[in-house]
Amino acid sequence: MASTTTEIPVTLSKDEILRYSRHLIMPEVGMEGQQKLKAARVLCIGTGGLGSPLALYLAAAGVGTLGLVDFDVVDYTNLQRQIIHSTADVGRKKLDSAADKLKAMNPFLNLRTFDTRLSSENALELFRDFDIIADGTDNFPTRYLVNDACVLTGKPNVYGSIFRFEGQASVFATEEGPCYRCLYPEPPPPGLVPSCAEGGVLGILPGLVGVMQATEVIKLILGVGEPLVGRLLLIDALGMKFRELKLRKNPDCPVCGTHPTVTKLIDYNEFCGIRGEEKPVESADSDMQVEELKRRMDAGEDLFILDVREPHEYQICNLGGYLIPLNDLPKRVHELDSSREIVAHCKMGGRSAKAVAFLRQAGFTKVHNLAGGITAWADRVDPRVPKY
Amino acid sequence: MSKIHIPTPLRQYVGKQASVEVQGTTVAEAMNALVAQHPELRRHLYTEDGKLRAFVNLYVNDEDIRYLQKEATSLKDGDNISIVPSIAGGAV
After folding, report:
1. Residue A319 and residue A241 share a domain
2. ipTM of this model?
3. Closest residue in A to B91 (Cα–Cα)
4. Which terminal residue of chain A, N or C, has fewer Cβ atoms less than 10 Å from its own Cβ?
């Protein structure tokens, strides 16, 4: 279906024929299919957890033109799952790191890299030169942006999403099928759904889901099998259970319905209500810096350290604080003594800011939020404290 | 009895269970039974005026209740209800 818009017939060299021989001897692919793969142009949004296996398998399979969009730098915590990057790549641009691996994997690949954050300003232009878009992003604004840009440009959106040990996959925005907005007209308000950075993710899961996306991309190019159009696959890696739900094209969908109200790209941060809540919160007058905490602890002052992280985070590292996870705070607030000066902390300062706001409402007056959390403590006070 | 499948992000509010068995002849009854058993779940699924949140989809077996009789969709013994909220993770 969305195989190619190129008119020039593609031919395979002798080396390519040998490389793809296990495809060529399969009737579902064959020479014609392999030529379709070579003529195909696939754009991967993100070269992280999902983008790693996606790009590697598409390059290996012989997809002729692969575009990568990313602006990020490889960090040490990526290596647990982002298998296109290696330890030596920490600190490098993900695009450069990915490009090295993909070119080494398949020198016949025409790789196009876009060192930019996908935005409403550049998405339509970027999508124009590709046939299929594979969405491996990590946040709601970009999910809606990719979806809307796919609908507006008429390109299928091969979708995958993960959380902890659970994944979702589908193919959106084909001509006949539903789009992401048919499934979820509105994003959740910020803070109600934790991000991977907060919630964690099982390292193999993006591998599983990214390979499913790669499978769907290849099927779309070849025009074989039954693509996940109109179906949402739910993957539970812990139970190793796969369930499938029916998706319908919503006639009232604001972007792909019969009377669309979204006819151009919008401000997706605004749409998703993002005001930087994922980042460490800006300083407030209740904030305490890690240096001040250290100085006051060393001076032997009576401070009550309240750790609002989860027990498994406490096991990784702690400041010897009293542990009450943020979610348990309302029902365990009686364990705290409001006459004492309390310093709340979490990993980065976001959850503890919520804890401080809650405690103030509950009548606590001497509460501080440790700015930057235990991560800032590890960076600026005690480098022996591990970061995670 | 119907089984309600609880997605990972919400399991912390139901004692970490993957599914919860409830009584109810309609989706609304079953969901009411669920949030009665696990009150902390309510604000994650419903708005303050009691409407199901827009980013939470409910399925009976493999059908979206928006295309059945919404929350009035009737249930028979052994039906599976799935709560399917949107998740965004991928690259981080």
Report:
1. no
2. 0.85
3. A48
4. C
